Fold each of these.
Amino acid sequence: MSLAVVKSMNTAQPVPAPAKAMVSIDSVTMAFGSFVAVQDVNLTVADGEFLAIVGPTGCGKSTILNSIAGLLKPAKGSVAIDGVRVDGVQNDIGYLFQQDALLPWKTAIENVELGPMFKRVPAAERRENALKWLAKVGLKGFEERYPHQLSGGQRKRVQMAQALITGPKVILMDEPFSALDIHTRHLMQNELLRLWQEERRAVVLITHDLEEAIALGDRVVVLASGPRSRVIDSFQIELERPRDVAEIKLDPRFTELYRNIWSSLRGEVEKSYERHD
């Protein structure tokens, strides 16, 4: 009599635990005197998630970003980073601004060293790290150049190194590439994605460019027109990574996502223009 060998047919894989919340915005209202910019905003950004926020001009996108940074205090509600309530300017964030934020009297490497210097990192260690980050963003050999000696794209690379060298838990971006020409913008967007893929920090990007939001983000959140702006929609961007921001726009799924998000955003943009006419 032969002996049968029975193998388990249960091939189910364990479900991965959801990523922890790195940024939590809980019922936040931001007001300036009697003017209410945003009202009862609730948002959670997971650790390693790339969140893009879009909305009409004047809807409070930058206000929300500055509340995460601790530069503005909510009139109501709370903001937390990694479970710790935000109360004052934060040390665990990197901030990429729309305009150049480099000190013109300092060289590229001296600008990159500023964050570690404020954190009291020893001079030799911060110089070594700054050299590594400038090489990582493609600026080896440009360390002693001043900002006016660099192109717009090169200055943006210095700012990226400056924002990332301290190993922030959260990276905040306020339309960082809007001033660049389209070709340089694509190069910088791809460079950003390459650097982000290495360590996957939580990112909050605000932009007027819906194509940029879809090409870069894991999720796109739509804000209503202001005043008293609020979150009105959220879209998961289920496009594979790594991505090339120019090539991904040729994907039919990109076009479908654009159509769906624009259908949500368009009415709010029209309301915003009507209020300003």
Amino acid sequence: MFDNLTGKQGLVFGLITGVGLSAIIGFAIVAPKLLRNNYAENTLAQNYQLTQPIDQPAQAIAEAPTPTNIPKSDKPKVELFVMSNCPYGLQMEKALIPAYDLLKNKADIEVKFVSYAMHGKPEVDENTRQYCAQQQDKDKYFSYLNCYATTEDSASCIKQSGLNESKINSCIEKTDKQFAITNKYNDRASWLSGQYPIYPIHAELNDKYGVQGSPTLVINGVQVDASRTPNALKAIICSAFNNPPAECGQTLASASPQPGFGAGQTQTATAGGCGG
């Protein structure tokens, strides 16, 4: 067959054959790596029942409607679970702060922590610092949080908020021993899928509510989805009152804070998270 090919035809045939052979060799090299990566991701998801990719990127979404399945109470209990350095947890916290300032005397609003950390030892330490700040004085804690979420400067924000640094440090030491936080961090065998240190302070609540990632909003014991704007969070909290107070008639900002540290805003509602 090849004896009948002209020189030009032979050249074309050789090129086509070479490309095809290169493609086969390339697939043989890359395919096992792709399969291994896919297996690792699926294993991590199965171990912690992750339903979304780790560090899920932000996506534009329509503003979520106010849920109708939230149990009502005279004083709603609002629990926001975050990782302190998660960009999307910070975004939700910045949206929550104005709603807290408006409703702090009417609802029980707290920040709590996901039971594992994805952003290293600094996040583990910041979680404990914020836990202690909130134990000391909730108003000053939210002032600290407003500063920290903008500047990422914990030392300056402690002073600016009026928190007692000595008491914070004593609380950190006591809390670390009580929950064996540093011991768990140093015990890599206990890390989630060998990658993420366990953060145990609110582990029982994480299990109770099915918290898997940051941010997770729980109101009166029920996980709820909410748009990350001050006004949307105000509305969803107000929907949980038996008799909404007059403050619920006020309108807060409708822009969503930017993910991560900083004071910027975005006009587009976003969804993203750290973890499942």
Amino acid sequence: MKTRKLLAAVCFSVLCAGAPARADNMADFAKAGAALNKRDYETAFSLLKPLAEAGDVLAQYNLAAIYNGNFGYKTNFPEALKWYTRAAEGGMKEAQAVVGDKYYDGVGAKQDFAEAAKWYKMAAAQGFAPAIGSLGDMYEFGKGVPANAVEALKLYKIAADQGNPLAQVNTGRMYATGAGAAKDDATAVQYFEMAANQGDIGGMMWMGSAYETGSGVKKDLIQAYMWTAVAQKNAKLVQQADLVDGFKVVLDNLRYNMTTDQVAAAEQMAKNWKPGGTTMAPPPALQAPPAKKK
């Protein structure tokens, strides 16, 4: 499930940037983060494990991330799932979403879509956009929950309106295909553009297609070429060779129907393009859940 892949690695970077944590544990977290930067896993474990065993959800989450291989340590996915689950049970929405990921993919445990949906629902109830988008995916394709395109679109839109780019693409796709709502190309393009302006390759691809076919916008091959070229450039950056090749075919076809000057203009626009962000509200900042009451 594509909404999920960045979740498992997020917490130490946020923590070291000053995300909230229990004040009495901050020194140990800082030392653990420094140790991980040096690949000193023994020290990191010695600092995090006591905190994790004592119920500190940030320690549990980051201990899980180490076992997950996020910091270069040898992977132990069942142990990672164990600690992600502990953090999730402590109310941490990011951990709940990752536990959902693990059951969705069958990593660290047997694949179980119903169990994945359970954890996504917990995180979604806390307003966590990636989990809301993932839950939308499950309703769209009937995995772990009854298939329901209307509910899928509703969830995608909630996550999209929080600024989640994949949810924006999925919202646009459903409007473009008439799934869960009446077909509406103009609304679809609005969501595709939001995602594209955040640097999302899928959003860029759909924008290129919209301008090529005149779906929801006035047909414009220069714009179609520009968006496709930007998508190809970003695909190269993330080493998606299959996408790079596919975009090359599209660009070749577009070039066949364009003048030399049009191609040159489009290529210059692509060269100058920079992410423009979104006018919608950004996703909520990562927050550590409050300490459990004793």
